[in-house]
Amino acid sequence: GAVVSQHPSWVICKSGTSVKIECRSLDFQATTMFWYRQFPKQSLMLMATSNEGSKATYEQGVEKDKFLINHASLTLSTLTVTSAHPEDSSFYICSARASGRGEQYFGPGTRLTVT
Amino acid sequence: DAKTTQPTSMDCAEGRAANLPCNHSTISGNEYVYWYRQIHSQGPQYIIHGLKNNETNEMASLIITEDRKSSTLILPHATLRDTAVYYCIVRVLSTGTASKLTFGTGTRLQVTL
Description:
The structure holds two protein chains of two kinds.
Chain A: E1 4-7, E2 10-13, E3 19-25, E4 30-38, E5 45-51, E6 57-58, E7 67-73, E8 76-81, E9 90-98, E10 104-106, E11 110-114
Parallel strand pairs in A: 2-11
Antiparallel strand pairs in A: 1-3, 3-8, 4-5, 4-9, 5-6, 7-8, 9-10, 9-11
Chain B: E1 9-13, E2 18-23, E3 31-38, E4 45-50, E5 55-56, E6 61-64, E7 70-75, E8 84-92, E9 107-112
Parallel strand pairs in B: 1-9
Antiparallel strand pairs in B: 2-7, 3-4, 3-8, 5-6, 6-7, 8-9
């Protein structure tokens, strides 16, 4: 139980284009989802927290107009990187927390490369 | 959430127990100790968590000191597949938006033959 999937697992896009990453909780309902970013040899950095049906809460220094988060259902959240640039190349990981519970479960991550 | 301190790296021989320490001297009474690990290029994997009693599951054991200021994660028989970065995280267990996992630098465990 408690499986979180991400799609795609890796993506290459050209500078200036937008890319959407999906995060799904497969066997539970996730009231809250989290998006993290991880650069090589660094730890995970929380980007934003989203509750189903509400606007996401972004961490300090994360541009909300660049990283669009939609949490439209209890099993799906999407992260759209708009006008991507090479410095946005990173490993993006989502996490979901089951309704009424405190544990967080993580997806396998999406590696984004912007050329 | 309270900050944690972990050694940067550790080595362990395969088949031996791996003991990973974590200091959390500013932990509050309602904060739990969580352990996650991240194998290269994968998402973090939950290992175990506890409040004040020692805990054991199929993956590991968690030993928390009586004053709760430190803990040790024990992998009883380490294998090469246990090579990963291990994160000790302290947080309040709640469903609120503010309760989130904040990752430090972790301990890079290298299991060798």
